[in-house]
Design a protein that fits this description.
11 helices; Spore Coat Polysaccharide Biosynthesis Protein SpsA, Chain A; UDP N-Acetylglucosamine Acyltransferase, domain 1
Length: about 425
């Protein structure tokens, strides 16, 4: 895989994940208590022996850059690297990235310098484990110009994706973006061609793009230079190339989740707590997910009841109940708290001991979750300070609410407490 260069697309402003993207790039959003979204594609690359990795981003990239610098350092005798390429204005390109393809186009001058055969284009906001070696090998075996990784889906979900039709050889012959009605029925394919059993093919008669591509180097360069007005791979560049290029489909049969919205992000995190077999596991020794090493102390639990939950390093939990939740690093929960169906991202630092008063007779609200607080169906972002006797329970069953000035949003019924927010004692949400 030394002849493959990986390009991870950091995405746009991440408006669908707001307010989690208020102060960070989408790939830098915390995941599963101790990771970040960017760790998924980077780890897949490393496990696939693809060690030349660029990450393209343009919004709030400071924390992402810091994480990558601290997490991924290859030995001096290796040509491996993980490097952020932030959007920049130049005399030739005075505008910011206009789309996925435009982001790559603006850095072609750098990408062309590498002596590689293929470019692997990845997304920075998906949760899955994939051996890209099999993907690239399929691309080479079929002598494809472009290969798309696709997933089989059923009719219920099909209209939410960009769909493709293939011929008997697996070559993609047509595309349709989120079709409905008769247009949807016309996109049915025989997925046994890609390796599904007849029973599986009957259940999932559609194939959807994962937003993961392999391009021959010269093909990508030619397509990006030929159509300067086309700015998106999935909607413009690839469909336009179908007539005169060999575009193949590679079927991915494992777990894959696009976690680009608050609801899907919430569901994907809490699904990690399922027993005995969660849909995605971080406990695979053969293909580990890497992240920054923080050297934190073990988590301390003092007379707690914890069920069906994941708890990160360095937490302190006192006489509380935790059920079906994910707690991030350095989370502090005081006595009498009930945390249920909740993702707490933890803290970036510990408060000095003198600043940390655990009783409720104090003038300020310390880091963490104060005593006798109840939190259900919520996301608590980093460094949040939640006081004593607070209830974060969506009492009025609100589906959508913007309370920016108060430090929270409600999205799809999920209460999202902002990063660095302060929720005073006795607050009821």
């Amino acid at each position: 895989m030394k002849n493959v260069l990986s390009i991870i697309l950091g995405g746009g402003a991440g408006t669908r994940l707001y307010p989690l993207t208020k102060q960070r790039a989408k790939p830098a959003v915390p995941l599963a208590g101790k990771y970040r979204l960017i760790d998924i594609p980077v780890s897949n690359c490393i496990n696939s022996e693809i060690l030349k990795i660029y990450v393209l981003t343009q919004f709030n990239s400071a924390s992402l850059n810091r994480h990558i610098t601290r997490a991924y350092s290859f030995p001096g005798f290796s040509d491996g690297f993980v490097e952020v390429l932030a959007a920049q204005q130049t005399p030739d390109n005075p505008s910011w990235f206009q789309g996925t393809a435009d982001a790559v186009r603006k850095y072609l001058w750098l990408l062309e310098e590498w002596d590689v055969d293929e470019y692997l284009i990845l997304s920075g906001d998906h949760l899955y484990r994939m051996d890209y070696r099999l993907f690239v090998e399929r691309h080479r075996e079929t002598e494809a110009d472009i290969t798309l990784s696709v997933v089989p889906i059923d009719e219920k979900r099909a209209s939410s994706f960009g769909l493709m039709k293939i011929d008997d050889s697996g070559r993609i012959v047509s595309f349709s973006e989120k079709p409905k009605g008769e247009d949807l029925l016309r996109m049915q394919v025989d997925t046994t061609t890609l390796g599904l059993t007849p029973e599986q093919a009957k259940e999932s008669p559609y194939i959807a793009s994962m937003g993961i591509y392999v391009f021959k180097k010269d093909v990508l360069i030619k397509l990006l230079k030929r159509s300067l007005e086309q700015t998106d791979f999935g909607k413009e560049i690839i469909p336009a190339a179908a007539k005169d290029h060999n575009i193949q489909a590679y079927l991915f049969k494992g777990y894959w989740e696009d976690i680009g919205t608050i609801e899907s992000f919430y569901d994907a995190n809490l699904a990690l707590t399922h027993q005995p077999h969660p849909p995605f596991s971080f406990y695979d020794e053969g293909a580990p997910i890497y992240t920054r090493a923080r050297y934190l102390p073990p988590t301390k639990l003092l007379d707690c009841q914890v069920t069906e939950s994941m708890i990160g390093d360095g937490c302190i939990l006192k006489s509380c109940q935790i059920h079906h939740s994910v707690l991030g690093i350095r989370t502090r929960v005081e006595a009498g708290c009930v945390i249920q169906d909740t993702l707490i991202m933890g803290s970036d630092y510990y408060q000095p001991f003198m600043e940390r008063q655990t009783d409720c007779a104090r003038t300020d609200v310390p880091l963490g979750i104060g005593a006798n607080t109840t939190i259900r169906r919520a996301i608590i972002d980093k460094n949040a300070r939640i006081g004593c006797d607070v209830q974060v329970i969506n009492k009025d069953h609100v589906e959508e609410a913007d309370r920016e000035s108060n430090g929270f949003h409600i999205i799809n019924g999920i209460v999202v407490i902002h990063k660095n927010a302060v929720i005073p004692d006795g607050t009821v949400i």
